[in-house]
Amino acid sequence: MEETLGEIGQRIRVCKKCPLHESRTKPVPGEGNPFAKVMLVGQGPGRNEDETGRPFVGAAGVFLDRMLKAVGLKRRELWLTNVTRCLPPGGRLPRAPEIKTCAPFLLDEIRVLRPKIVCPLGNKALSLLLRKPSQIQRLRGTAIPMETHFLFPMLHPAAAIRNPALEEKVMEDFKNLKRFLDSDPVLKPPPGQESLF
Ligand code: URA
């Protein structure tokens, strides 16, 4: 039987696969609607997420809620998750081996949730999901068809906290996401497999 999102969350809560488990307070599994059509993928927990064990509850989360409200989306319609699940010591950025060790949790969440749209928020999430170094600034606003879902790259809400001049662009990305979702996009079958769809 296929694993549930709750079971993946439980594996994350007890994970000791990389040294970050020694310094974390709480690991941060994904959370939200288990039937969500849209998954938002952040970089990793900050201090508030580390304290609570929940994604997007700090300043970036407050800003995210503002953006969602502005376009008529609700947190409870979505699945919120991250590339890494533990806060590195001193709040430094996660290192490549830590990202590599943690990545299977995200891929498992995508496989089990089967969202229609996966939104990498920022370069780390985008590069992981496209399996090559990629720039959100180049790809934001485009829907990239993958095997099981569309990738819809967006600026990270925290970018607008660091640089308020980006707020308009972040808002634009959320408006475009809502428009894309409402268009009810359908993935085209790979050539030669049309009869399976
Ligand atoms: N909170 C998260 O859960 N993820 C981020 O990327 C930023 C803040």
Number of helices: 8
- Strands of the biggest beta sheet: in what spatial order? 1-3-2-4-6-5
Q: Classify the oligomer.
A: single chain
- What is the CATH level 1 assignment? Alpha Beta
CATH architecture level-2 label: 3-Layer(aba) Sandwich
Q: Could you say which small molecules are bound to this protein?
A: uracil
Helix content: 40-55%
Alpha-carbon distance between the termini? 24 Å
Question: Top keywords for this entry?
Answer:
single chain, globular, alpha/beta, Uracil-DNA Glycosylase, subunit E, 41% helix, 197 residues, binds uracil
In words, what does this structure look like?
- By secondary structure, this protein is of the alpha/beta class.
- The protein has one domain: Uracil-DNA glycosylase-like domain (Uracil-DNA Glycosylase, subunit E, 3-Layer(aba) Sandwich), CATH 3.40.470.10.
- It is built from 8 helices and 6 strands, in the order αββααβαβααββαα.
- It has helices at residues 5-13, 47-52, 59-71, 96-113, 123-130, 136-139, 157-162, 167-182, and strands at residues 31-32, 38-42, 79-82, 117-120, 144-145, 150-151.
- Helix 3 crosses helix 8 (167-182).
- It is globular, with a radius of gyration of 16 Å.
- The mean pLDDT is 95.
- Uracil (URA) binds next to helix 3.
- Residues 42-46, 49, 55-56, 58, 60-61, 82, 158 line the site of uracil.
